[in-house]
Amino acid sequence: MSHAHRPRAIDGQAPDVFSRDDTVPMRQFADTDEVDFAIVGTGCGGGVLAAKLAEAGFSVVAFDAGAFWRPLSDFASDEREQEKLYWLDPRISDGADPLEFGSNNSGRSVGGSSVHFQMVALRFRPEWFAARSRLGYAIDWPVDWREMWRYYDEVERACAISGPLTYPWGPDRGRYPYRAHEVNAAGQVLARGAEALGVDWAPTPLATVSAPRGKSPPCVYRGMCKIGCSTNAKQSVLVTYIPRALDAGAEIRDLAMVTRIATDRQGRATGVEYHRDGQSRFQKARNVVCAGYSIETPRLLLNSANARQPTGLANSSDTVGRYLMVHLNDAIWSVMDDEIRWYKGPPSMACCEHWNYIDDHPDKDFDGGYAFMSQGPLPTDYARTLVTNSGVFGHELRRKMALYNRMAGLKMVGETMPCADNRVTLAEETDAFGVPRAHVTYAHDDNDRRMRRHARAFMAQMLEAAGGRDLLETSSTAHLMGGCRMGADPETSVTDSDGRTWDVPNLWVCDGSLMPTGGGVNPSMTIMANAARIADRIKTLCASGTSERAHG
Amino acid sequence: MSPRFHAPYPGWDILDKWESPSFNDITRAVLRRRLTEVHARRFFTPAEWLAVQALCDVVMPQNDNPRPVPLADWIDAALHEGRSSGTRHADMPSPRDAWRQGIAALEAEAQARGADGFANLERDAQNAMLRDVDDGKVSTEHWHGLPPQRFFRNLVLAEIVAVYYAHPTGQSEIGYGGPASPRGYVRMQPNRADSWEAPPGDWPDEDTP
């Protein structure tokens, strides 16, 4: 594989992500400079935070274990090569329903998982921010939905989301910044089925531009969003917030693996230990932010245990690593009479949030909600789904795969309940840096099983209504949420509503691990909106002198 | 028995677009390596190698391919290089140990069925044996600590299809468009294809409405 083996953001220069081989100037800090913020992770949480804090004048160094890619020259049209975008270091997967990591939910690049996400840009339903008090399940967020919705506006503008003029579900959200894309044949199957059943559907709001934007050309519908966009039409964090962060004077350290947060005798964070280019180093910082997502953030906090906090940093509540959530990602696939050629266009161009916005219905026998979208998996992705779910092999496998161009699919994004026993701990075995590997335990509950049954039946009905036959059901999960949840109660959460850990005043979390509930939509917009909100909260706290910052 | 494989897109070869705007430099470089760099066996032992090759043949029969994809060689290379998927199931050994144990278990299972090894079973018996492994119907102690279905589906099948359908041969036979950068696609409607996509498929009777 053509890996970036050596760091590229060095000597006062960072890769220009809009070029094939150029650089842009980058401010650099010494390890001995006590920077205002050391941010661990540069995805939907850390990338957004780094940009907004640097723009507010703070000194920022953001670390990422992954490479700093230039999509135009680094991204091939090839699934196997592009595995370089994923976190492939093994996690130990345990429990009654063990999770799949890697390409399924874990990025390892500057820009994080947004470099390989499928760009589905949906908002939480307002009531989900008060799931316990409004809907009677799980737990409330410590944030009001109107505040979160204002930040959805902000990040949707920052990512120039292409979406429909009117969206069928939830409160009026105004117009999306860019017009909706033409819905491909795979999406038209969902549309036809929804109309036959009398339920709403929508062109999916997507983070890929439908018209030129700055140095981003409009999407050319090559369909390889999940393995990295090689044209920069995709509005990932790598091509939106990272350039902003660099412009504002943040330093990005690529291929820099943070292994431990150091603390002083008072228990305050003093900086981060990290490995880069074969060296072990230490960056001093006034504040440390964990933004490594739901596995690496808990892993880092647990591995940073000290004499005062022997069970892990910020873990007096024993909540670090707990309440890990995924989305149910079951799908129905069917053979169509038409050639669909679902490899063209973004994979999920039509969506249905019908069951996210229904509470009282005789058929609804579960808490939470689910959305589902049309599908367009690339060949090896679809083949893996087929064989791991059905065990098919031989001529029958080749025959089923030969129907690739005639297939359509509907796949759910279903909310699972936060459960204390679904968690990240440290394994005995260590990685190349001597850090214990993550050990992840996961089991579904009865609510998950009821929702999965309901969604499978509904999606099957819709596909049949659209003319699908020879239905195949598959089971999987997607996305990660929780693991260091924020909350109103220090006994049951890791951080307050600002992402500041209850135990260590200059240690923060800013990524998907903060999410107290998972909702029934893809999480990236929610993670970004929450990060944008936390950035503004930090600015406010610093202005009022209740948080650390540099002077002068 | 399953029907014999019928290729719906005869003559379609994504490599014919090599010099077209559907290919860029990095994709050409990656595919050039995939087509030319086939390493000699480095991970499996000679005895294991026979069984692995037979296993690939049964899972992905390629007797109709003029140039079969060297599946076993790519699996060997991935294991030699320590390529990882990001997930290690707690009930499974590491990929290398799992493959060694799994191949030994398949050999023992074939011997329990009266053959010298998996490669020496008749094709029907090989098919039947793999279906039994997938169903967990195994008879030897060699599977201890290695769940047969997880080994078969998540390692054997998943790895074989990951190699086959990442190869231009596998991609062409299913009518996939192949590399698409910088040029993508224009015609997004059902039954419509750009001139740089496969022409409409030729479907066998059982798949035709």
From TrEMBL, chain A:
Chain ranges of the Glucose-methanol-choline oxidoreductase C-terminal domain: 419-531
Gene3D superfamilies: FAD/NAD(P)-binding domain
Keyword Oxidoreductase: yes
Ranges for region Disordered: 1-22
Superkingdom of this protein's organism: Bacteria
Keyword Flavoprotein: yes
The family this protein is said to belong to: Belongs to the GMC oxidoreductase family.
Protein's UniProt name: GMC family oxidoreductase
Protein species of origin: Pseudosulfitobacter koreensis
Automatic annotation (TrEMBL), chain B:
Region (Disordered): 171-209
Top-level taxon of the source organism: Bacteria
Pfam families given in the database record: Gluconate_2-dh3 (PF13618)
UniProt xrefs under InterPro entries: Gluconate_2DH_su3
Protein name: Gluconate 2-dehydrogenase subunit 3 family protein
Native source organism of the sequence: Pseudosulfitobacter koreensis
